[in-house]
Design brief:
164 residues, alpha/beta, Nucleotidyltransferase, domain 5, 16% strand, binds magnesium ion
Length: 164
């Protein structure tokens, strides 16, 4: 399994409808441990769950989409890393939407942690529903705030290395 030139990431986004969903916050962590986190200025519609569970947790100064793209480009550089995310279809699509007409600095094929977990015989639903218990069983130490994009990204990294 690939261990290097990976970028683990997670986003919180406005909707599960890929036609309207956009990134509200994003966390990236390299296999070297270097991290990036930002929150994006967004005033469009959000679904009820996001209103209740995500918006109150976003407390940083918000940046524009253009600046977010710049920050990701700078962070990633030119090594064309492979993205890893949990249930990556949303995060990756919304990341592509953020980049728009800009060239993407990461490789096209991403790795889905959820698929890897299924292949390893792990129960993804249980992981999602009771993360604290689940990661303890996997032998992962530390506190991770669920639905904080940076903590979620950190956990993606921990789980990825644990199961591969
Ligand atoms: Mg998340």
């Amino acid at each position: 399994m690939i261990k290097e030139n990976l970028i683990f990431f997670d986003t919180e986004f406005s909707s599960l409808n890929p036609n309207v969903g956009e990134i509200l916050s994003a966390g990236f962590i390299k296999d070297t441990g270097e991290e990036l986190y930002f929150e994006i200025d967004y005033s469009g519609p959000t679904n009820e769950w996001v209103k209740e569970n995500i918006l109150p947790t976003l407390k940083q100064e918000k940046i524009s989409k253009e600046l977010a793209v710049k920050k990701i480009q700078e962070f990633i550089g030119d090594s064309k890393p492979i993205l890893v995310a949990f249930v990556n279809q949303f995060d990756v699509v919304y990341l592509h939407k953020l980049f728009g007409e800009n060239d993407i600095p990461y490789g096209w094929p991403p790795i889905d942690l959820a698929t890897l977990m299924v292949v390893k015989g792990l129960d993804v639903d249980k992981y999602y529903e009771n993360q604290k218990e689940y990661i303890k069983k996997l032998g992962i130490k530390g506190e991770f705030i669920q639905h904080n994009a940076l903590d979620d990204a950190r956990l993606v990294k921990e789980v990825y290395y644990k199961i591969t």
